[in-house]
CRC domain-containing protein
Amino acid sequence: MDTPERNQIGTPKAKFEDSPVFNYINSLSPIKPVKSVHITQTFSSLSFASLPSVFTSPHVSSHKASRFLRGHNPSDPSKSESSLESGNKVSTNEDAAELCLNSAELHEDCVPGDSIGEASVEPRNEHSKFVIELPRNLKYDCGSPECGATTRCGTEAGCESEVADLSAPLVPYVQKTSENGSSDDGAHLQNICQSEQRNELTGCDWESLISGASDLLIFDSPNGSEAFRGIMQNPLDSVTRFCNSLMPRLSQNETADEQNVLVLDTIVSGEQPETEDPSSQYGEASQPEDTELMQDHLNSCMVSSQIEKEDNNLEAPMQFNCKPGLNLHRGLRRRCLDFEMVGARRKSLDNVPNSSSSMLSQSDEKVTTNDKQLVPMKPGGESSRCILPGIGLHLNALATTSKDYKTIKRENMAYGRQLSLPNLTAPANSPTAGQGPGHESFSSASSERDMDGTENGVQLLQDASQEPAFLANEEFNQNSPKKKRHVLPKFEQAGETESSCKRCNCKKSKCLKLYCECFAAGVYCIEPCSCQECFNKPIHEDTVLATRKQIESRNPLAFAPKVIRNADPVPEYGEESSKTPASARHKRGCNCKKSSCLKKYCECYQVHPSAYLGGVGCSISCRCEGCKNTFGRKDGSFMLTETEADEEEAEACGKSVAENHQQKNEIQENEEQHQDSALPTTPLRLSRQLVSLPFSSKNKPPRSSVFSIGSSSGLYTSQKLGILCPETKFERHIQAVPEDEMPEILQGDGSPSTGIKTASPNGKRVCPPNREFAPSPGRRAGRKLILQSIPSFPSLTPQN
DNA sequence: GAGTTTGAAACT
DNA sequence: CAGTTTCAAACTC
């Protein structure tokens, strides 16, 4: 096991320890020198190979990833262990415990030689402590990079020692701690940790990790993906393995998921860091921005991880992620995620109670966590640039909650917008090059919520409902499809998060109608707007509010977010909503007739911050005709595979009208058939669905599975292919079921709860049995329409 | 940049 | 609830 590298590393460490600088640092810091020394080694040692074995828990994997990022050396297996530990450190106490467990396993794999023989003398307890401490550190931002350096060493050393010495015993201990609760861990940490300083140091390390993550985030960009690919080629196997191993596990625990996400990201990016600079990793890690980015990443990763999970579930054997092509694919997702990332940041903030963000958030306890996050963002300013807008909106919303604050709200909103605009514009531009991710993150404050939200989705709704207008609106806005306006929706979206970026061009509506995007978004018009006779300004607050009330009186959901994300977060919904980005839905649905839901005219297609991920597919609630929404057809067909999507787009663009008509006709026919079939067979359908659930829903809960089954895929394919009605029937059945599920999401929408009933007056809805929702299913279908569709049948028939 | 298309919002 | 009008964004040239 021992690799020459280790030895080499070890020697350097010794030298380092001997160096006066090291001694000086030691004297300064309470941390024991031994630990510090090892740290560097740990970083250096990152062995992908070991990782896979480690994966027992997702957390572990995540940790590894983080480590990897730091430690550029993939070669050393022993290092991997250390890396894992460090990763654990990063994670919360619980996570740490898990990590320890994982690490223990890893240790088993790597331990023999890995220990590197460094001064790992540290007692097991210390190791456990380290683990715990690390998490804390994560929470606490390390102050200076210097500390990071020292701490790194210390932590790493500790980790290494742990690995070498402990591994096994520690693991159990950690587990206990985790089980017992964070409190225990905390106690241990305190005891163990000699001082907070150490923690800070560790924190620095953590930060460095984060920074690395941030780097990764940056990499999220296509370029990054490419780089990643390149990296992958070598470590690819290990990485892919790692990812694969993680994926399934991630699904196991949500928390784990998040961490896993990190891991994935780290894994992906891992290589880059190497290329870039190890130093960079550590360096500025302390910066909050990095942490935020990390969080965003994490969030995005979360999303992606979820998606991946679905994928895994669907294609478990395939190891989707591992494949290079897949990797690329992932990269894309990430990008998308990145957009959402903004939300992720918030999330991360939540997770990691950090200074700046927490400050604000604390002020508004009432506010939902999301809101809090948003608020903090403002203060954060830097990271939040983009966020600011959103924050402002949120603040406004908060204010709105309390009538007294209304004025404040508005002011804030206006303020926020203005601020946001600049931010938006700036970020958008620069970031564009930089890529979407940054923008995304920024813009996505709103989206973030969704993302974040596991809660977000729900919270958003709640907020919207609770909060009068602007808040909800703004939040919604972010989600709202209208972002579309600009060519670079992402930026704008992100930046504006809507409110900030939105600009209207109203001439007759005075910006007091929903025609006005700004008004609809609950934002005041700003300079960038080219509206005429605009009343949507703070000066006319009374008018604006009155108008809002009127509109709301007519349609309480007028200002509610139009697009709902399945964010998943909410366990309740989670199932039905499919976690995939595609899961996002338009509450009302569209009514497109000529655009085939392939243009921005379609509110569903337009999108929403998450759109980059896949946009919003049409759902049952849609009354569109000839729906070809690549993100999901009301029929139920879901996300088409890229190729399919492309094809469709091409079709949309290039297809002759006649073709379109044909397709439409086919679809209609199919729909009719479906309707016919569907109507009659409720019981059968249900049974089928149930049956199908197992199949399709490997990943997802029954509900989702149901959708998936029916999943649009089947319908869609059938439609396109002119396939059999049976599927359609089946799908419809599914739809019927889904609708039950739907309620959660749709509840807000007020869409018909019952699948069939829901049918719009036109009856079209009724037909459109399939939902877009089933994101996973949709994808499946998209990926392998034929296969999927076929399987579903068998399952159904058998059951019947 | 002007004109057209489109579909949501508003109105009847 | 259905149909029509208004409106502004999206799109095309």
The longest helix of chain A spans residues 406-434. Residues 482, 484-485, 504-509, 513, 515-517, 595, 599-601, 606, 761 of chain A lie near DNA strand C (CB under 10 Å from a C1').
